[in-house]
């Protein structure tokens, strides 16, 4: 049985690798989608089938990543307090293959330190927060847009970004340790 259509000419990983090479050489702003397509050896239309915009490329396959995040939260022991599951979920979500291309540190530096990407990041951050809000709402029999689930999502995101900023400033720092420290420090502060 033969498949219909053209064979796959590239993959999201190949596009990301090529784009990050170009970003490193010339800066994010100076690189166009046409140049990324040429680097990969595909047409612009093909490239847009994988990523809606250049701003989406640093985020990778973010929709799939969020589905993985939801699965992590569901798979953790549900007899634990909600805040512990959220903390463990955030830690597990932020485990990355050290051999990944592009390296996770490079990806996050681009996302957090490129002004053009900041506006686009707001959209992605809202999606990330909603994963936690949905989980907290389900556990506490609330709606995701109720105040407590929304606050939990917002606080978790802020703590994660703080940890990432510290990680980017210190090449020797361990991301998991920083995530644990930020989340634990706030819980301790609030308990006092």
From TrEMBL:
SUPFAM superfamilies: Homeodomain-like. Residues 9-69 form the HTH tetR-type domain. The keyword DNA-binding applies. InterPro entries: DNA-bd_HTH_TetR-type_CS, Homeodomain-like_sf, HTH-type_TetR-like_transc_reg, HTH_TetR, MftR_C, Tscrpt_reg_TetR-type. Keywords: DNA-binding, Transcription, Transcription regulation. Residues 32-51 bind DNA. The keyword DNA-binding applies. Pfam families: TetR_C_14, TetR_N. PANTHER family: HTH-TYPE TRANSCRIPTIONAL REGULATOR RUTR, MYCOFACTOCIN BIOSYNTHESIS TRANSCRIPTIONAL REGULATOR MFTR-RELATED. This is Mycofactocin system transcriptional regulator. It comes from Nocardioides mangrovi. The lineage of its organism: Bacteria, Bacillati, Actinomycetota, Actinomycetes, Propionibacteriales.
